[in-house]
Specification:
Layout: H1 2-27, E1 31-40, E2 45-55, E3 61-64, E4 69-72, E5 76-80, E6 86-91, E7 98-101, E8 106-110, E9 115-119, E10 125-130, E11 135-141, E12 144-151, E13 155-162, E14 167-172, E15 177-183, E16 189-196, E17 203-210, E18 215-221, E19 228-232, E20 235-239, E21 243-247, E22 253-258, E23 262-269, E24 274-280, E25 284-290, E26 295-300
Antiparallel strand pairs: 1-2, 3-4, 4-5, 5-6, 7-8, 8-9, 9-10, 11-12, 12-13, 13-14, 15-16, 16-17, 17-18, 19-20, 20-21, 21-22, 23-24, 24-25, 25-26
């Protein structure tokens, strides 16, 4: 049983590495070429299904879904099928809007007037919310939408919505800037990456809050900046440029891995309970770490690789 699972994980990893190399080639051109590929499991080959070119100098964003491609410019969102046929268009009326593509919805952010509009993947409006104050950014995490605003002039505020547009959580930081958030699977806890610039020294910390804004605990990081935070089930991952820590919800350290170099990219494979990281030192490596902190695979890779997908 263990051998069969190992083989499946190895095949999946080989596929992701192959896909990564293909995307690197695509990203190296200003003309974004979208190829629809079919994986043949028996021969490990990719078959080209369809292809189109999109001039990215005319657009500010792109998102590829299973059956459509969404592209956006300053005043319009356009949906294309894989033959290049326009499925629908949606005008954007906000000034200097920010568009974020989620798994479930599309979000149009009017950062000046403080309004968020949510569209479904057919371009239909499903809800909107007026904050009546400036908005910094929005992030879709699981079944929630996180909206970063200000509480007054100095304090950062984190507003949490369900995907129906109902406000379900609200947190105000007494100090520091919220860089990122994650929400626990049970929707009861919020993890926040905070950068504190109040003193002469830059402070970085990870803080755990209840959904209603009560701080449970915080942990400071000395002489480093936290670059990534995540819940992994009921555990908490904290990543800096050269270190990975896993803690439990009571702040107990489960393991700590120092990296002999600098972490360039890191992804969490929840299904297989593993962490995949790309880092550089004297050479560049792709390493897979189990949820227990043990190395499952480590391989030297080409120095030109900049990201793992």
């Amino acid at each position: 049983m263990r051998d069969s699972r190992t083989k499946r994980h190895s095949k999946r990893l080989q596929f992701f590495v192959l896909l990564f190399f293909l995307l690197i080639l695509i990203a190296s051109s200003k003309m974004f070429n979208i190829d629809r590929l079919l994986l043949n499991n028996s021969t490990k080959t990719l078959e080209l299904m369809s292809s189109m070119n999109i001039d990215m100098s005319k657009y500010s964003g792109i998102k590829i879904y299973d059956d459509e491609i969404l592209i956006v410019n300053s005043n319009k969102i356009i949906s294309l099928d894989y033959n290049g046929t326009v499925k629908w268009k949606k005008d954007i009326k906000a000034i200097n809007p920010i568009v974020r593509f989620g798994i479930h919805n599309i979000y149009i952010l009017d950062s000046i007037n403080g309004q968020v509009v949510a569209l479904d993947l057919n371009g239909e409006e499903i809800w909107r919310y007026d904050f009546k104050k400036s908005i910094k950014d929005i992030i879709e995490k699981g079944d929630c939408l996180i909206v970063f605003t200000k509480a007054g002039e100095k304090k950062d505020q984190i507003n949490i919505f369900d995907l129906k547009g109902d406000l379900v959580g609200n947190i105000i930081l007494e100090q520091g800037i919220a860089l990122d958030c994650d929400i626990s699977n049970d929707k009861k806890k919020v993890l926040i990456n905070v950068l504190d610039l109040s003193d002469e020294k830059i402070k970085s910390k990870v803080a755990l809050y209840s959904m209603n804004g009560y701080e449970i605990w915080e942990q400071n990081v000395e002489n480093d900046i936290i670059s990534k935070i995540n819940f992994i089930d009921d555990k908490i991952l904290s990543v800096t440029k050269s270190d990975i820590k896993l803690l439990n919800s009571k702040q107990k350290l489960l393991w700590d891995r120092g990296i002999a170099g600098e972490i360039i990219d890191l992804n969490i494979d929840i299904e297989n309970e593993q962490i995949i990281l790309l880092y550089t030192g004297n050479k560049k490596y792709l390493e897979v770490i189990s949820i227990n902190g043990r190395t499952k695979m480590k391989k030297e890779v080409d120095k030109n690789i900049k990201r793992y997908i």
